[in-house]
Amino acid sequence: MPKDTIGKVQEYKDSLITKAETLITKGFPEKIVELNELLSTPMFNERNFNEVHQDLNIPVLAPVLVNNHDGDADINDDNDHPVTKRPRKDDNVSVSGTTVLGLPGGTVPCNKPLCEMIKVVKPIIRKLVEDSNLLKMWISFMIPKIEDGNNFGVSIQEDTLAEIQTVESEAAAFFDQISRYFLTRAKVVSKVAKYPHIDDYRRAVVELDEKEYLSLWLVVCEVRNRYSSLHDIVIKNLEKLKKPRSSNTESLY
Questions:
Q1: CB neighbourhood size of 196 (10 A)
Q2: Are 153 and 245 in contact (CB under 8 A)?
Q3: What interhelical angle do 112-142 and 3-22 show, nearest 10?
Q4: Whole-angstrom Cα distance, residue 180 to residue 151?
Q5: Which of 58, 86, 80, 99 shows the shortest CA–CA distance to 189?
Q6: Which of 123, 129, 169, 192 has CB 3.0 to 4.6 Å from 201, enough for a Cys bridge?
């Protein structure tokens, strides 16, 4: 392997270690303070559900009365006898909604207040994923070669690494939560367009928006908590994470 390639790899490792140590001592505390300040802003602190209520722009059309006479029905010529109805062939009742070719008011907009919150929250989630990945690689580079005995410090590194990997996975799941909200809302809104006279579907959209509003606040709280827990566990075990094995073990004998 060329020496310049080995040198570049070592340079990358040294740069990553420097960035990780700066992140732990300076970046994490700053991020915790920043998130605490964000949670105290009116967008996240007040949590008034009425602020995320939004009209769907789907009007309720006038009801259309349809007179549907079954031509095959057995109608008695004698007016004194009631109309004989054909027995039902299938007990399952099939209700078809309105065919939606277009909406009179145009498109159905996304929930604007929630979209504004998502614009704020998504970069925070992305930063947590990036920071967790950087911290994970830093600890991986600190793990020494496998040897018999004197592995207490290595076990601390492995436990910390597992915690960081859990945080990274949870942060990635927050992105999936946001995309699932839009998909679920679109399905419920399509139900409103197909069945505009059923208020339960409209109420379901309101409940879904309120749930997402609370979830976004909870995501920011969880990100703040994850930064705090990672900073706490790394600072408490920083010595063992950087030097998992003592160099003076021979003095014990």
A1: 19
A2: yes
A3: 120
A4: 43
A5: 58
A6: 192
Q: Which two tokens stand for residue 110?
A: 């996304």
- Indicate the DSSP class of residue 215: H
Residue whose C-alpha is closest to residue 114's, from 31, 8, 9, 205 = 205
| Structure tokens, 85 | 């109805």
Residues 139 and 242: beta-carbon distance below 8 Å: no
Distance between CA 238 and CA 244 in Å, rounded?
Answer: 10
Structure tokens at 208: 């879904």
Reduced to 3 states (helix: H, G, I; strand: E, B; else coil), residue 224 is: helix
Half-sphere exposure of 28 (CA within 13 A, CB side): 22
The three-state secondary structure class of 166 is helix
Asked whether 58 and 196 are in contact (CB, 8 A), the reply is yes
Position 179 scores a pLDDT of: 93
Each residue's pLDDT tens digit, 131-180: 999 999 999 999 888 877 778 888 999 999 999 999 999 999 999 999 99
In this predicted model, what pLDDT tens digit does every residue of 39-86 receive, in sequence order? 999 989 877 888 889 888 888 877 655 555 444 444 444 555 555 555
CA-CA distance, 122 to 168, in Å (whole number)?
A: 14
| Cα distance between residue 189 and residue 19, in whole Å | 46
Sequential DSSP letters for 27-49: IHHHHHHHHHHHHTSHHHHT--G
Asked if residue 234 lies in contact with residue 241, where contact means CB atoms within 8 angstroms, the answer is yes
Other CB atoms within a 10 A radius of the CB of residue 174 amount to: 22
DSSP letters for 147-173: -SS--HHHHHHHHHHHHHHHHHHHHHH
pLDDT at residue 103 tops 90: no
d(CA 34, CA 236): 22
